[in-house]
Fold this sequence. Notes:
Elements: H1 3-19, H2 22-42, H3 47-79, H4 82-87, H5 93-121, H6 131-153, H7 162-176, H8 188-196, H9 198-210, H10 217-238
Amino acid sequence: MSPLALAWQQFRFERRLFWRNPSAAFFNFALPLLFLVLIASAFGSDDDELDILLPGIAGMSVLATTFTALAFGLTVLREDGILKRIRGTPIPTWSYLTGLLASAVLNAFLQVVLIVLIGHLVYGVAWPVDPPLLLAFTVLGVACFASLGVAFSHAIPNEDAAPAYTNAVFLPLIFISGVFYSEDDLPAVLRAIADALPLKHLIDGLSQAIVGGGGDAGTAAAVVGAWALAGILLAVRFFRWE
């Protein structure tokens, strides 16, 4: 089989693994949608709240399906010796990694599409005002957090520590980055930390694309792009099969 066909087979295998793992399917896919439905149902009559919530949950979904899923998943694969065994098989490295990463990327795009559909069909939010910008920021966010997830997996010492390490990044980040409320409500110190990290800027870009209000899209793209470049360099530099 050609390397491209092997990548496709690996991708199909990763999709089956994902849906056959209930905890992964729930925490990395269903949980952001559950947050959206619960919070939007509570504040569904407030258009301003929905304009904040929709892009925020979309950004959170990209974070969960790429950074969290890959950081946790690669740690498990490495510590269980699966990566080492894969390395010893004839499948080309790029075919395996392409299939693995493509599954996480697909989850992120599906999440963003579902969030936009739920927002419009259930809660009456208008269709995205700038679909090309929405696509661009989704691609940029996926590249950023997927690379950071691969890079961060190198810092996790073992499989038992993986949930603690990933949640130690995921939970504080979503609460200071304006996922559920405007970051303007935060203390200045927390706003400064959020401004230095990529999730807040991804949400700003998604907000500009979905509801037409999120600040400077160019600045947001530059910050997320810089983090993506750093993540790619770190992921390539420190990746280990065992």
